Amino acid sequence: MESQRGNLMAEEEFSELAAARRIQRLTSHISPAVTAPSQLPLVQTEACSSRLKKLEVNGEALSLHMRGKHMDVQEKVFEFFNSRPDLQTPIEISTDEHRELCMRQLLALVREAGVRPFRYVADDPEKYFAISEAVGSVDMSLGIKMGVQFRLYKNSFEVLINIGFGSNVQGLQTTATFDPMKDEFVIDTPHDGAIKWWIGNAAVHGKFATVFARLILPTHDSKGVSDMGVHAFIVPIRDMKTHQTLPGVEIQDCGHKVGLNGVDNGALRFRSVRIPRDNLLNRFGDVSRDGKYTSSLPTINKRFAATLGELVGGRVGLAYASVGVLKISATIAIRYSLLRQQFGPPRQPEVSILDYQSHQHKLMPMLASTYAYHFATVHLVKKYSEMKKTHDEQLVADVHALSAGLKSYVTSYTAKALSVCREACGGHGYAAVNRFGSLRNDHDIFQTFEGDNTVLLQQVAGDLLKQYKEKFEGGTLTVTWSYLRESMNSYLAQPNPVTARWEGEDHLRDPKFQLDAFRYRTSRLLQSVAMRLKKHSKTLGTFGAWNRCLNHLLTLAESHIESVILAKFIDAVQSCPDPSARAALKLVCDLYALDRIWKDIGTYRNVDYVAPNKAKAIHKLTEYLSFQVRNVAKELVDAFELPDHVTRAPIAMQSDAYAQYTQVVGF
């Protein structure tokens, strides 16, 4: 018995010591003051250790090159919310409280901080999107609400509503019938199936709506009416003084959602709601007092495209905002992984989990992709700004296709990356304070609104096929697809058996090789899907052939967008004025390019574009570049210059949940 008690006491003492050691270790993992990441031992493979040479990165120059001329206004937003804990969104908040907080945040941003986004929507879209990125990083609901209030609605009291059509916009059923006797339009939603849900600001705060409806005019022929196509109308939905719903307007609250609960989404239905004739937004079509219709655009389709042109800005904004979410999640995961230590060589200190090849494989290509998507969406915003100023038809078409592709591609990638980042942080990533849950839930809908991602990729594929046809009919190509004109023949030729075997590092890191590889794949996919569509359309018809080749078409669209992304990344590397920052960007760009080539290596092997030994060299170099990026990972995420209240959410520390959490992990 004494022996058993002694054994039990020894076991208890050992358990207490083990628990104490574990708490101390957890504390050291989380506290950055214990060990600087640069001092942590590195796990090196023999191949890498002989080539190891850490880059010296000028973080200030890198950040300036990335954030550009509008970093000051972003800092203004960050500093304002950092100084106002009462305006930071806590972890535990009800839907009603979140909606009201989101409204207070927006009002304070404009009235107290003096940041006026509406001023820049038309005059300086680049500055507007910079503000939007900063605001969305504070609370994504706030970023969406600001976009609803200022960008979509043309002034502070309009709400953009698309009634009863979903992705098939031209099939909407809400009507605006002109009544010449009273000089009014009558807005009608014909049945429940024509109701449009998920309208931002509709459930609580909105007072006006910009409604897309089919304009119906009376005629004196046998038909009695004429459908002039989709037009936009200003429709009051609530009383300006009492805030009560106006007669004929029915509003339903969409209630608690998976995310973005600071935005009050609702559904609208109109029952014979009358508005003055002047409430027609008549830039692209007008109705006179006697009911005559005039337009500078000759067809319904052209008027429709012009009327919905503003929706392109929504896709631009979502692509840009999604990169902002990716920056936050990558920063949190990488900083944690640099500090978190686990296992190691016998009788030596534990090592950073980012020194494990498996962890580098998860996070380093993601960090490279974050940089790639940043420069691609910056390019998109610049093209959009130019489009707004010039209204050039060619540029409008280019921005339309590019925004569809980037919005789809980037938001899908970020949605997956959020789960990877959560997993990379282990159990601590599951704590709400670390933001992965809220970021994932808020961002998830980005894949659906402003165009379902699968539908948008089909638009890109359709445009590519149109450009392919233009190429062989001698027409002109828009800028984004110019490479199809310039070198389609060389891309579709048989691969060079000599270059297919080149495996030197200089060759593999040559941007020409990388971009040629991306474009070769796109050109091959384009040619093969065009042939398949032609073949199947003979027996299945146009729709059946498209559906038969749909997965092929989606792969084509993604490949094209990756080519655009890489091209813009290479441009950003070459235009960076600081040598050390340029070297860091080149490293990250090479990792992005070679990682993508390796992930689709089967495509290149199938056509002998890459010989077996070259494929192995690409794989080995990709692993080495991941290791090199790991060595400057801290500098690379620091260049995002995200404040602590964005990456650590200190307001959450006041909650009971956070107090319990810190007790468990030994804070």
TrEMBL record:
Keywords: FAD, Fatty acid metabolism, Flavoprotein, Lipid metabolism, Oxidoreductase, Peroxisome, Transit peptide. Residues 309-464 form the Acyl-CoA oxidase C-alpha1 domain. Residues 510-654 form the Acyl-CoA oxidase C-terminal domain. One of its GO terms (cellular component) is peroxisome. The active site is at residue 450. The keyword Oxidoreductase applies. The keyword Flavoprotein applies. It comes from the Eukaryota. Signal peptide: none annotated. GO terms for biological process: fatty acid beta-oxidation using acyl-CoA oxidase; lipid homeostasis. FAD binds at residue 200. It is found in: Peroxisome. Its cofactor is FAD. Belongs to the acyl-CoA oxidase family. This is Acyl-coenzyme A oxidase. It comes from Thlaspi arvense (Field penny-cress). The lineage of its organism: Eukaryota, Viridiplantae, Streptophyta, Embryophyta, Tracheophyta.
